[in-house]
Amino acid sequence: MKTIHKAYRFRLKPDVEQCRQLARIAGVCRLVWNLCLEQRKVVYSSRRMPLNSYKQIPEVTKLRHEYDWLREIPSQVLQQKVRDLDVAYKNFFEGHADFPERKKKGRSTDSFRFPQGFKIDNRRVFLPKIGWVGFFKSRDIKGEPKHMKVSRDGKHWFVSVCCEVEIANAVPKSKAAGIDMGITKLCALSDGTVIENPTCFERYKRKLAKLQRRLARKKKFSKNFCKVKSKITALHTRIANTRRDFIHKATTGIAKNHGLVVFEDLRIKNMSKSAKGSIDNPGRNVRQKSGLNRSILDAGWGEFRRQLEYKVGWANGIVVFVNPKNTSRRCPVCGHTAKENRLTQADFVCVNCGYADDADVNAAVNILRAGHARLACGEIGAVRPLGEAGTLKAA
Ligand SMILES: [Zn+2]
Fold this sequence. Notes:
5-stranded mixed beta sheet, binds zinc ion, single chain, 11 helices, alpha+beta, 7-stranded antiparallel beta sheet
């Protein structure tokens, strides 16, 4: 048996007063995050001294003794927020994320965690200082709840119940897959499988474009402006939900059948920042991808890899990251590497031996080979520790 962490997410049903309290906690959490971030930056630039939560939590506690309005917020929640900043710094230094940013009201995702003091009773949860809040119970919770995360998504509040679950020690699957993340499609696998994006994305894209054109014609911050704006926010939430569900299905399928999964080691943020297709092939599809298309397709990549990493880990498999250099240009048959092998976006045709394949599948094959090579060289650094990833991430 082994222990894994699993999160169950439900929509909360807070009443008006509880909504107000949740918003208040979220506001103070933003403030604490911003203050601590600012302090770290200042102390580091003036004294070259890195700060962490061990030094900052006592200061937050001190502030709580001074201000009544701070005392109304559960202290554990504020401490967790400071610890989230540690995680954000760590992710930055390990190259998985950008440097932590200030949190802005209405712009950043609001979330906070309760490490203790909560209770669950069938269809409601007890949150310290807030009380019992009902939720839409869409599935059964298995395992022992370890902490709870509350977050706001559009207009609604959600609770994630993070549990420790015992699972049987699985025998790793023998199949291996290289994965090439796409732009017009979600990804291609080295065995030739191509996973397309959900078809509804096209419809959402048109709708989003229409709303944004309408927004551009409105007077800023007028009543009609706000109306359209909130419609856009709601649509973004719907897109995000659809994408998450879709990615869950895709990653569960891949993790179920593969004991080894190989990815390109690209910084997620780098990929989504510009309209470039990949490091090898900059600028492919630039016009199509820029703008709206991007806002719909982007965020999926990081989430896809994150989910696959922990799901493969649950099944005792391995995830390997490889250098993305030349993966889309190399011929897997003769090894000839040239940008002429990729005259079109969709096809790979080797100018040396004539081998042809779907361009993305070809890249996936190269990625898988690179993964095998790394493992054969015994490069342990290629493999990230698995099994516990997935639930405890900075908000
Ligand atoms: Zn060739």
